[in-house]
Automatic annotation (TrEMBL), chain A:
The keyword NAD does not apply. It comes from Glycomyces niveus. Coiled coil: none annotated. PANTHER family: ABC TRANSPORTER ATP-BINDING PROTEIN. It is a peripheral membrane protein. Keywords: Antibiotic resistance, ATP-binding, Nucleotide-binding, Transport. It is found in: Cell membrane. Gene3D superfamilies: P-loop containing nucleotide triphosphate hydrolases. One of its GO terms (molecular function) is ATP binding. Pfam families: ABC_tran (PF00005). This is ABC transporter ATP-binding protein. It comes from the Bacteria. Residues 12-236 form the ABC transporter domain. Its main location: membrane.
Automatic annotation (TrEMBL), chain B:
It comes from the Bacteria. Pfam families: ABC2_membrane (PF01061). The chain crosses the membrane at residues 20-37, 49-72, 93-117, 129-148, 160-178, 217-235. It is found in: Membrane. The keyword Cytoplasm does not apply. Residues 5-172 form the ABC-2 type transporter transmembrane domain. This is ABC transporter permease. Its main location: membrane. It is a multi-pass membrane protein. The keyword Membrane applies.
Length: 307, 241
């Protein structure tokens, strides 16, 4: 963003961001922008560089090169000024174990010079645990308390680093609901997650990080459609030579037939016709776009990018 | 304001951890009183010298060591990382964590020096200067503790990393018991612990006008500010990778 521009700065703007730990490059020239009210998801395996990207964007680390700007400012230099507008949900909550839920929330609002907002405990279903020390909470309850703290400051930007990891399905859905509420109010959200379904459910745009670089960018549909779809089954009886002509590639492993295809509907149609005609049972039949695991596996099998 | 908020939370944490509370409150107290009858300080030239050593030891065991360990432990628990995402400044975080410890040490000092006054039949000539000596020592030792925590990876490592600071503080505290004039005296005042001894001795025994206390105060403040600035630059707010 040009300093002289009349356009307001985007809530999050990461440009050619590179972060290193000694000789190890954790983030390699990553770039993305998040608009107000947008939920942007960073996906990737452990060690892909997601958390380092977030830690740099919240001002905990200085980049080796490139920039991360939040609300138009350098988060490392303007950490305190940005703290009122930026909320963070970390992988680890960082609460003091001997403070209660209510005291923790109160401490947080006091630090932000806000009126106490204990009603937020009710929104994350922790009102009945208000007087319980944080150390006695379950992992899921801690994550929910973290969410209450994030919401308490009505942030313009929220960085949520794997906020649903370890949550039960109901808590996960509740978290999704709160994230949706925030984006509806105009909060820009950067979410890191291992779950493609979560990204598909919540995110406008997605970036998949692999070995520090952004390897894929787009909507979930765009990304999955750029990979071959999979059809898997165990035909009984099975004679590979008798298979119909298919657009996709076939492979057999321990009786499991896998077809990778760019023509999912047509190949599936041919297979069903063939099975009906030949009297073949298609046991364990599954068909669909590539899963995140499959995409990660393909990315990892690609050679490392040259520096 | 922010430091007070953090100090209130830290006080709760100390009060709720019985082991920490007992260790922080009782042990330095025993040490301070035991010093009264030790051969080392029993031969002290004056009640002021005895009070100065007691104050130095109380601050070392009650503030310097605990603040180093507290910072390392809170970092390990990711509490400091959490605070770093709040509007709290570096100074208010350190002050917020140190002030309950300083308050406990102040109460211990009042008890120990009260016993010293009763035992020796003396009283501080300048009580205000004694308070200033405590404040000066508390600020200096908090800064040195912050600096020590900056190269302390874990709370366990703090048991070792505090040793150089303890040695320097003891050198400063005991060396300053003897009078020293000229440039060497000026240099000595810069050693952490020395200014504290000079001020406390003068506060108890008299014989030092308020104007001449400016030198140890200025030098020790300079050392504290330098230590805090270096620490702020080196300190990591989350566990090392």
């Amino acid at each position: 963003m040009n300093a002289n521009s009349r356009q307001p700065a985007p809530p999050v703007e990461v440009t050619d961001l590179t972060c290193r730990y000694g000789a190890y490059t954790a983030v390699d020239r990553a770039s993305f922008t998040v608009a107000p009210g947008e939920l942007f998801a960073l996906l990737g395996t452990n060690g892909a560089g997601k958390t380092t990207t977030i830690e740099t964007a919240i001002g905990l680390r200085r980049p080796a090169s490139g920039t991360a700007r939040v609300l138009g400012r350098d988060p490392f230099r303007h950490r305190r000024e940005l703290a009122g507008d930026v909320a963070v949900i970390g992988q680890e909550t960082g609460f003091a174990d001997d403070l209660t839920c209510a005291e923790t929330l109160r401490l947080w609002t006091d630090l932000h010079r806000l009126a106490p907002r204990l009603e937020l405990l009710e929104r994350v279903d922790l009102a009945h645990r208000a007087a319980v020390r944080v150390g006695a909470l379950s992992g899921g309850e801690r994550r929910r308390l973290d969410l209450a703290l994030a919401v308490a400051t009505a942030p313009s930007v929220l960085f949520a680093d794997e906020p649903t990891t370890g949550l039960d399905p109901a808590s996960r859905r509740r978290t999704w609901g709160l994230l949706r509420e925030l984006t509806a109010q105009g909060t820009a959200v950067v979410l890191t997650t291992h779950y493609l379904d979560e990204a598909a459910e919540l995110a406008g745009h997605v970036a998949i990080m692999d070995r520090g670089r952004i390897a894929r960018f787009g909507t979930v549909a765009e990304i999955t459609s750029s990979y071959e779809a999979r059809i898997t089954m165990r035909p009984k009886p099975f004679d590979p030579i008798a298979l119909p002509a298919l657009a996709g590639r076939t492979a057999v492993d321990d009786g499991l037939l896998t077809i990778r295809t760019t023509a999912l509907q047509a190949d599936l149609h041919r297979l069903l016709d063939w099975a009906a005609r030949e009297g073949v049972e298609l046991a364990d039949l599954k068909a669909g776009p590539a899963t995140l695991d499959e995409i990660f596996a393909e990315l990892e099998s690609e050679p490392a990018p040259a520096n | 304001m922010t430091a007070l908020t953090l100090a209130a939370a830290e006080t709760r944490l100390i009060l709720r951890n019985r082991t920490v509370l007992v260790t922080a409150a009782i042990l330095p107290l025993i040490l301070g009183i035991a010093l009264m009858n030790s051969p080392l300080t029993g031969a002290a030239q004056s009640a002021g010298a005895l009070a100065a050593v007691q104050l130095g030891m109380l601050l070392m065991f009650g503030l310097f060591m605990p603040i180093t360990m507290t910072l390392a432990a809170r970092r390990q628990q990711l509490y400091l990382k959490r605070l770093r995402t709040s509007p709290a400044s570096t100074a208010s975080i350190v002050a917020g964590l140190a002030s309950p410890l300083a308050l406990i040490t102040l109460l211990q000092t009042a008890v120990v020096l009260g016993v010293t006054a009763w035992e020796t039949g003396t009283a501080p000539a300048h009580p205000g200067l004694l308070v200033l000596a405590f404040a000066n020592g508390a600020i200096t030792l908090t800064a040195i503790g912050f600096l020590t925590a900056s190269f302390t990876k874990t709370p366990e490592a703090a048991q070792i990393t505090v040793l150089p600071g303890m040695v320097v503080l003891m050198i400063g505290t005991f060396w300053a018991l003897a009078p020293m004039d000229g440039p060497r005296g000026v240099l000595r005042s810069a050693i952490p612990g020395a200014a504290l001894t000079e001020l406390a001795t003068a506060a108890w025994d008299g014989g030092l006008d308020f104007a001449s206390t400016a030198q140890p105060i200025a030098l020790s403040t300079l050392v504290a500010v330098a230590a805090a600035l270096v620490a702020a630059r080196l300190f990591r707010w989350q566990p090392r990778d």
